[in-house]
Structure formats: C-alpha cells, structure tokens
Amino acid sequence: MKHTFSQSTEDGLLALSGELLIENSSELKSALCEALASSPRLIVDLGKVTAADISSLQLLCSAHRSASLAGTSFRIDPTGEVIRSIAENAGYSCRTKGCRFAIGICLWDPEAQQARG
Amino acid sequence: MHRQAFREEAFELLTELENALLELEENPHDQDLLGRSFRAMHTIKGSGAMFGYTAIAEFTHDIETVFDQIRNGSTNINRELIDKTLRSCDLIRVMLDDETAVSESERSDLTDYFHKLNQNKAAKGVNTSISRPSPADQSTAETEKIYRISFKPAPDIFFSGIDPLGMLNELRLLGTCSIVAHLDRIPPLEDIQPDHCYTYWDVILTTTREEHAIRDVFIFIEDSCELKIECIVKMDSFADEQVEKRLGEILVERGELTEENIAGILKQKKRLGEMLVETGLTVPSKVAAALVEQQQVREVHQKRQTTEAASSLRVPSEKLDTLVNLVGELVTVQARLTQTAAVRNDPQLANIAEEVERLTAELRESTLTIRMMPIGTCFSKFRRLVRDLSAELGKEVEMITDGAETELDKTVIERLNDPLVHIIRNSLDHGIEPAEIRERIGKPRHGTIRISAKHSGDSVVLTIHDDGAGLDAAVLRTKAIDRKLIPANAELAESELFHLIFAAGFSTATKVTGISGRGVGMDVVKKAIDSLRGQIFITSKNGQGTTITIRLPLTLAIIESLLVKIQDSSFVMPLSVVEECVELNRSDSTRAAGRLLPIRGTLVPYVPLRERFGLSGSAPLTEQVVIANVEGKRIGFVVDQVIGQHQTVIKSLGTAYRNVAAVSGATILGDGSVAMILDIPKLMIAEENICISP
User: Fold this and answer.
1) CA dist., res. B232 & res. B235, Å (int)
2) Is the pLDDT reported for residue B67 higher than 70?
3) Cα B57 from chain centroid?
4) Nearest-angstrom CA–CA distance, A101 and A106
5) What ipTM was estimated for this complex?
6) What is the per-residue pLDDT across B569-608, written as a single tens digit (0 to 9) for each?
7) Which among B188, B203, B277 is the nearest to A66, CB-wise?
8) Which residues of A touch B184 (CB under 8 A)?
9) A55/B194 CB distance under 8 A
10) Residue-wise pLDDT tens digits, B509-555
C-alpha cells in the first residue's frame, strides 16, 4: 500500500494505491487519521487501489464517521473499479439512506456521491 | 402441472438438449451450452421422478452426472459422448410415450457407458464441487426456497485468515442473493481496532438447495460466529397463498381513483421505514435489509406467476384448428351480413354490419397469429438429421440455417417436415461429394447445406442450397428418355430438365441406398408442396451445387384477395401478387399490336381471362386489367369488373378439379355464391409463351 497526502488551498487529497488489505490496516488507519487532522475538506482517491478487503472498507466508513462528528467534509473521488465492486459484493453499497453517524449521504451510495461531487 | 404438461415440456427440453449437443460438438467449451444441456437433463430427471416416470428418471441420472462433471471441467466432451447422449434422447422420447416400450436391455449399453464414465471419475478421485441431489430429495430438488441468513462474524475473524467476503461470494454461487452489510457497529477512527471485524450481514438467498448446503459455507467458523439461517418462503406455499391487495390498488382497479391520486397522497406521508429510523427504533441498514427481503420475495413470486401464466398457454392444436374453422365460417357470414345491409339500404343495419366487419377482421388476425410458429422449430430437427446422415455416409457436412425466426402457419410447418427431410437427404446423398473427392477438385472438405427462410409478401420463401456436385442436364436427359418420361427427340430447356427430378419414379442415383435413391422422394416432395398451395423450383450448376426454392403461403386458412367479375362469374386473386389495376379501352386493345399494355414506359403483356376460360358473352367497352407481379415478372389479367378487396376463406376443391391448373381453391361469397381462387403463378407459367416483361 502507498499513500500520499497533498493540500491545495481548500482541499486535502489523500491518494491511496496498491493493496488495502488487513496487513496494512494499521498503516491505513494512521494515514486517514493524519489526513483528517490536516484538512477540513478531505478527498480520498481510491482510483489506483488494486485489492481491498472488509478491513479497509470498515476503516473508510469509520473515517467518514469521525469526519462527520468533527464537521469535516469527507468524500471518495474517484472510487475506482476495485473498491466499487468490493463494496457492492460486501453489501456496503446497498443502502437507501446514510448511516446514523453521517446522516444524509452514505459513503458507498454512488448516486449520492455523484450528486455531491 | 400434470403428466401431460410434463410430457410436452420434456419433448421441448429434448429438442433444446439436442440443439445444445450439436452445437457443443463444435464449441466443446461453451459454458452456456454445457449449462443448458445439464439443466435440460436435470429437469427431465427431476420432473420425471415427480410425475411417476421412474424409468426415465433413473435412466437420465447417470447422464446428468456426466454433464455435471463436464460442466465442472473434470470430464471432457467428445464425439462418442455426444453420440450416446443423442441416442439417449431418442430413447427418452420413446419412453415418454410409453415407458415400457424400451426394455432394460435396449438401454443397457447406454446406461453402462454413462455409468462407467462416472465410475472412472470416482475411481480417479475427482470430486465435483456441485453436489448432485440424492434420489431422496429429488422431488424437492426443483423447489425454490428463500432463506434469511444473519451472519455476525467474531471480531477477531481476520486473525484466522478468513475474509468474510469469500463466504458471501460462495453464497452467491448457491442462488440469487441480496446482501446487506450492517455498519452501525463501526466506531469512529479514534476508537477503531483496524484488525477487528465490526461489520455483520443479512443475506436473502433464493435457492433450490437445502439448508445444509448453506451451512457448509460457514463450516470453518460456525462455532465462533453468530449464524442464523431461516427458510422464510417455500415456493410451494405460494400456490395456495392469496396475495392480499392494498386498499389503493383496489380503489384504482374499481376506477374510483387514479394511480396519480394515490401517489400524490402517499408522497405527503412518510414511509414506515423513514418514520422508524427517525424515532430511533431502528437503523437504516436494518430497514434496507427488510426492504431487500421484501423485494426478493416479490420478484420470485412475480417470476413464478409469469411462468404459470406462460405454461397456461399450452392449448391442444385441435382446439386451435376448430377456432380457425369457426373464424372462417364467421368471415363468410359477415360478408353476407355486409352485403344484405348494403342491399336493404338500412343505415342502422349497415352500422352493425360495419362493426361486425371490424371485429371479424381483428378476430381473424389474432386467431391466425396464434397459429404462427417460428420455422426454426422445424430446422432444429434437420441439424440432427444432417449430423447422423453425414456420419452414416462418411461425408463431412455442415448445416447452416438462416431466418429460423420466420413465422409460418403451424399446419404448414408440420406438413413441411417430410418434404424437407427428403430434400436434405437427397442433397447429402447425391449432391455433396465425399471429402476426398471434394479436396481433389479444389472444394473445401466440408460440404455445406444452407437452409434459409424469409418472408416475401404473403408467402414464405424457403431455400435449400448445397455446394455439391449439382445436376447434370445430360444425365437427366438420358435418364428421362430411358424411363420414357420424355420422347427421345424432345427439346427441353435446362430448367425443364431439372424439373424432371420431380417426376414420379425418377432417381439419378446409380445405387440404391437406405437414405435415398429409390426413386421415390422428389415426386412426393412436389405433391406435398402442391398440397400446401406452394411452389417448388430448382436451379443447379453442374459441379457447383443445387438450390431448391420453395414458396409457401403464410396460412392455409384465410387470405386477403381482390374480387373480380367476368360476366356472371366471380373470381378472387390473392392480393399479395396484385400490383395495380388499369383500364383497357376497346380502342386500345384493337389498336395495339399484340397483347401488350404500356405501363409507365414498360410494356406489360396481358391475358384476357374471358377468352382464357372460354366464358360466353361480350366484353364491356372498358375492361379492367389487374397487373400481377410474381417474382419480379409482371403480367396483366383482363376482367370485366374489379369489385374490391375481399377476405377469402379458402375451401379446397374436390378431386375432380385437381388437374385444373388455373385455380387453387374456391371461396363462398356474401350472397352464397362460389368464386374460384385464381392460381396466378400457374396461370403465368401457362402463358409463358407470351413474352413477359421484366
């Protein structure tokens, strides 16, 4: 797994690539924590992710929750084919409304993401 | 579904299976074809057992297993296997009519073959990943059930190296799956243990498999996770269930309200799920899971209803025939009503007559469409024929079909089968050369038979083309003289010589084979096509192949036609060949040199039908010429009067009229009189000595 963080005037961009698997889960957690702490508007780029499992989906969800609690904007762009299909297979993208932690928009609802993006 | 319905379904399945097998021979790795073959066998076996066809169920058992193995890649498909399976299909067909008709010994070599294949696999220790239903659960094998699976893995599941995603994917393989992940336990980032699993799932699975198959997916972690599997709907129970209608639906049905009214009101009201979430009684993912379950049950129910509706369309063909006859009678009576209304000059009656006319036309249209079937049903049988015959003759022949979706009256298709079999046999036996000869003369080893069908006006044109040796006009001539079919000094055009093969007792094969060459066949073909009011033509190029073209009417029952009159006699001409009507003044006809009529710059020959039929009386000053077009050739028929369009119910003429070439049948008109149906193509051939303009 590789991660780079860059900050433009408004948005912070966390670009993740490679394998987001259980063995890198601690690394992913720290990367997300740092990025959230450094930017009030965070975009996570998952376009170059080549593999993922439930642990990484959970971490992304968790980061979304923390961001909502802290009033930080958090979104994924682009989701990338790998993550999109894993989220779908794992039943993550099958909801009509967001979770109660981040009311209104779900991280995994492609339509809501699109409308917002 | 009762026994009879099963039989019909089984016959269809066998045909489908046969097609799939023949295609598999060419594409042995096509998973879709393998799946189709397996499913066909599986259904024949499963339903067979359910309806008391025990022998069939037993017989198909091993074959099904072999196909399951092929599907899983543990056995390979080969020609012998396809041969044996095709032979098994034949036996099953016989057994469907009478299970005792095929004795144990007759099927033993096939049973042994498939059994041995299975045993070999078992001995080699090859295990199929998809388990075959045991005989005990055969009757329930095809019953779909809906399961609700709640799966909550232990938080430390990742430590054991297991990804729950893999299990979800395995569940997907069992049937139709809707998966909802519950994410409400995932804590914010600061509290999360990245290597713990917080997600849990609700899965709705529609499958024919039993609960233990689902449990097997979780076999390694069952003790450490929370797993609940419930069967929420068994498809059998749908049959007795009266699905309750909602109030809104009933009001819309009764016409009290429109769907828009209901939608408007409902929009103001919050959905139950939203209200529950708002009050904090549940979380959105739980509502989503319940909605997914509701949706899946509904879909399965709808699918079942559609299947039931479709199967209720099976109607015995005799009932359809009666219906068509009745509609025929109705059309005749309606014509009489219209005519009576016109004579009485009663506007009220005319109104009714008009209404009846409209309804009758619609009824006629829809009745005839019910009888239409794609000709492909007939083609599929020929694939098998070509395969078996080419093997028997040691030739390599490929069959290509085109236009299988072309629809034709059911009766026509049924009666077309035998003539087409004769033609294909002839092509294979006499036409296509053995592979070695073909190679020597620079043709591809494989011979090709191309059967195609297409619509053309109110007819269907079928062509059967082979790239074989073609007909040798000189040989035909000698043979015809030998058989005294033509005088030795006869001067015949090539096309006339080709047509001789349709003469009784004519066969050019020097040796009699079991397939063809007995001299019966092509004359029978011609008679059969004639009886279908069709025409048959043959063209051939020596060394390059033969093409047989058959033109058939779309239906044998009712046609649209043009009613004309000469003196007091009425005639009808099929509207499909009529191009236009023009006037012919006596001055024109006397002035013109020869019987040719200028129509937009082209001279079209015409035939005065009064003269042709030897009718008495004199022609009116202005006559009408009906211009007909048959395969691009135009000819005019002169009549006294054109009455108009007419729905003609075709009645066949007695044997006394069999040799009258100019008429193909008769019809009863509104006033009860009879009108002859003119056979335009035959009239045209008879007048061929007139130069026909292109």
Assistant:
1) 10
2) yes
3) 27
4) 10
5) 0.92
6) 999 998 888 889 998 887 776 655 567 888 888 888 888 8
7) B188
8) 99-100
9) yes
10) 544 444 444 444 677 788 888 778 788 888 888 888 999 999 887 76
Query: Residue B381: pLDDT above 90?
Result: no
Using an 8 Å CB-CB cutoff, list chain B residues near A25.
194-195
Q: Are residues B122 and B184 in the same domain?
A: no
Question: For residue B363, what are the domain limits?
Answer: 317-371
CA angle B274, B277, B283 (to 5 degrees): 125
Domains located in chain A, CATH noted: 2-116 (3.30.750.24)
Output the average pLDDT for chain B: 80
Candidates B164, B274, B283; nearest CB to A54: B164
For residue B124, what pLDDT is reported? 47
Does the residue B276 lie in any domain? Answer: no
> Which of A29, A30, A44, A58 best probes binding to B when mutated, by most B CB atoms within 10 angstroms?
A58
* Res B438 pLDDT > 80: yes
Question: Among residues of chain B, what percentage have pLDDT more than 70?
Answer: 87
Q: How far apart are CA A39 and CA B138, in angstroms?
A: 63
In tens, the pLDDT along A65-83 reads 888 888 888 888 888 888 8
Contacts of B285 in chain A (CB under 8 A): 95, 99
pLDDT in tens, B632-641: 788 899 999 9
Q: What pLDDT is stored for residue B153 in this prediction?
A: 92
**Using the beta-carbon criterion (under 8 Å), do A96 and B169 form an inter-chain contact?**
no
What the block records as the tokens of B583 is 């006037």
Give the CATH number of the domain where residue B475 resides: 3.30.565.10
Cβ contacts (< 8 Å) between A22 and chain B: which residues?
Answer: 158, 163, 195
